[in-house]
Design a protein that fits this description.
six-stranded antiparallel β-sheet, two-stranded antiparallel sheet, alpha+beta, 259 residues, 10 helices, 43% helix
């Protein structure tokens, strides 16, 4: 009985550490919390999507952050600009409390894609048609397009279901490889971009820390099956998880496996 009591006491703190969620520092270091997104995959989605709905759905499958990414597009003469924003305040529409992740500018038949904030290292030029831009303008019946508010809840449900699938596991692996490549290729630009977060992002991080909302985050899901530290062991006392630049390692808090 004494042995059982001792075992229970020893197991107690470990169980508490595992159920209490990540530390703020570990959560804030993840790609999702930082607002990083796989822009190669976003560019592919832009080229492949047949509608704004399809593009928005795919972008939210790619992104690992906690909030929904909303899209807006506007036409100004021969130039059309598409923007992707994370809805940090969950207002279901883009406002000055949200964070700009990327832009795609079409001028004549050429496109330029740029990352913003933690994605500021990214810049890419590509050709191709303008079907998606045309679709957005026609569906909005104006030179401006915004993700409809009445589609927000559906997008949120779709993403929640997607994140419990093995397909998401595959997507996160692609993201991890992408961030590792970009970190190696862009070097100081990648590192400096991580420091160039917007006031909205900084306010969001501060709010998450003070409220403790980060403890229920899904952005650290990578830690349940991502690459491990060189020791290959977890530390129950650490009570967190780590992302950031694709170099994920399990250091304590482990979310349920998707296997």
């Amino acid at each position: 009985m004494a042995a059982l009591g001792t075992a229970a006491l020893l197991a107690g703190p470990v169980g508490a550490a595992c159920s209490s969620g990540p530390t703020y520092e570990d959560w804030a270091a993840t790609d999702g919390a930082a607002g990083r997104i796989n822009l190669d995959e976003v560019q592919k989605a832009f080229k492949d999507s047949d509608s704004a709905t399809e593009f928005e759905k795919r972008v939210n499958e790619i992104y690992e952050g906690d909030e929904i990414v909303l899209i807006k597009a506007k036409q100004d003469g021969d130039s059309t600009t598409l923007e992707g924003w994370e809805d940090l305040n969950k207002s279901k529409e883009i406002d000055d409390q949200d964070d700009l992740l990327f832009t795609i500018v079409k001028n004549n038949d050429k496109h330029e894609m740029r990352g913003h904030g933690s994605n500021g290292y990214y810049r890419s030029n590509f050709g191709g048609g303008n079907f998606l831009f045309t679709y957005m303008m026609l569906s909005a019946m104006s030179p401006r397009y915004y993700t409809p508010i009445n589609r927000y809840d559906t997008m949120n449900r779709n993403r929640s279901n997607y994140r419990s699938s093995s397909t998401y596991r595959s997507q996160v692996t692609k993201n991890s490889n992408y961030f590792s490549r970009q970190k190696s290729f862009a070097r100081s630009s990648y590192t400096n971009a991580a420091k160039n977060t917007s006031a909205s992002r900084n306010s969001y991080l501060s709010s998450q820390k003070s409220s403790g909302a980060f403890k229920s985050s899904s952005t650290g899901v990578r830690s349940s099956w991502g690459s491990r530290s060189s020791s290959g062991r977890t530390s129950a006392s650490s009570g967190g998880f780590r992302g950031g630049g694709g170099g994920a390692s399990v250091i304590g808090f482990v979310r349920p496996s998707l296997r």
